[in-house]
């Protein structure tokens, strides 16, 4: 079993494995542990938090499926986990899965230091690999990333466990990557960045969120919830229907 964090990453990996003639199963986990509680990682616990803190649907109809996916990945004989330590989502997901597996053998493909390339072999303008989800199926094949899979050593396992133990104890609203480390952060962490992208001129919310996502990895709904919070605080003002990114406009309050 190959485990990814997100369906986009799974799609690229499935294409690459098919091109290589492999029939291995690709198993995406869609729970983004870069935000929300991690002291107890259950769909109900996290869904209720998201409903209260972010104002989104708790989606109880999906709780059993999400919990079952974590359990299935944790029970596999020796999964290969694909991730980048530059991505808070992927890094946190890997740490939770390793935590659940205890001493069971786990293999990884860590693309943290990968230089991203186009199908023609040229580097992207921003070549740094922020997440495995950014890696194209052609590069997985051309760079033989499948062959880079290796077992997590006992020393690494203990180090990863210690990191996740501390993060679980802190149980902050967010996890972010700073200077190569996964750290706890408050729910307000992205507020300064959001405000830096606004002015006294009206701007469509989709453009504001898009500008931010061009420089960092973050969940769209998380950022939208923080815009709502800044509106409630009177820092930003809003016009439009507020039903989507396309019909909502914001600006700094004069």
Shape, principal axes of CA atoms: globular
Low-confidence stretches: none
What distance separates the N and C termini? Answer: 55 Å
Round the mean pLDDT to the nearest integer and report it: 94
As a percent range, the share of helical residues equals: 40-55%
**Helix and strand succession?**
EHEHHEHEEEHEHEEHEHHEE
Looking at the chains present, what oligomeric state does this protein adopt? single chain
Number-wise, the strands total 12
Neighbour order of strands in the largest sheet: 2-1-3-4-7
Structural class, from secondary structure content? alpha/beta
Note the total helix count. 9
Largest sheet: 5 strands, mixed
- What would you report as the Rg, rounded to the nearest angstrom? 19 Å
Please indicate the percent range of residues in DSSP E strands (runs of 2 or more). Answer: 15-25%
Summarize the structure.
This protein is an alpha/beta fold and 254 residues long. Helix content is 41%, strand content 19%. The chain contains nine helices and twelve strands.
What does this structure look like?
The chain has helices at residues 7-19, 43-54, 63-75, 88-101, 137-142, 154-170, 191-196, 205-213, 220-232; strands spanning 2-5, 26-29, 80-83, 107-110, 115-117, 123-128, 150-151, 174-178, 181-185, 203-204, 236-240, 248-252. By secondary structure, it is α/β, with parallel strands linked by helices. The strands form 4 sheets. The chain has a 5-stranded mixed β-sheet, sandwiched between helices. Strand 11 (236-240) and strand 12 (248-252) form a beta hairpin. It is 41% helix and 19% strand. The protein contains 9 helices and 12 strands. Helix 4 (88-101) packs across helix 6 (154-170).
């Amino acid at each position: 079993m190959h485990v990814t964090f997100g369906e986009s990453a799974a799609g690229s990996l499935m294409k690459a494995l098919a091109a290589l003639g492999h029939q291995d199963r690709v198993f995406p986990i869609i729970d983004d542990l870069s935000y929300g509680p991690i002291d107890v990682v259950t769909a109900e616990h996290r869904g209720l938090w998201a409903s209260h803190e972010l104002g989104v649907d708790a989606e109880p109809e999906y709780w059993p499926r999400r919990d079952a996916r974590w359990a299935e990945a944790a029970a596999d004989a020796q999964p290969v986990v694909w991730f980048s330590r530059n991505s808070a989502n992927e890094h946190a997901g890997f740490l939770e899965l390793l935590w659940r597996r205890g001493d069971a053998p786990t293999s990884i493909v860590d693309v943290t230091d990968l230089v991203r390339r186009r199908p023609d072999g040229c580097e992207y303008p921003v070549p740094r690999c922020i997440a495995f989800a950014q890696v194209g199926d052609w590069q997985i094949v051309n760079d033989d990333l499948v062959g880079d899979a290796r077992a997590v050593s006992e020393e690494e396992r203990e180090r990863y466990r210690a990191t996740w133990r501390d993060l679980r104890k802190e149980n902050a609203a967010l996890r972010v990557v700073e200077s190569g480390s996964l750290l706890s952060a408050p729910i307000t962490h992205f507020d300064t960045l959001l405000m830096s992208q606004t002015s006294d001129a009206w701007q469509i919310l989709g453009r504001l969120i898009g500008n931010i996502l061009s420089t960092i990895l973050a969940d769209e709904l998380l950022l939208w919830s923080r815009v709502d919070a800044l509106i409630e605080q009177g820092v930003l003002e809003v016009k439009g229907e507020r039903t989507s990114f396309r019909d909502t406009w914001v600006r700094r309050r004069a």
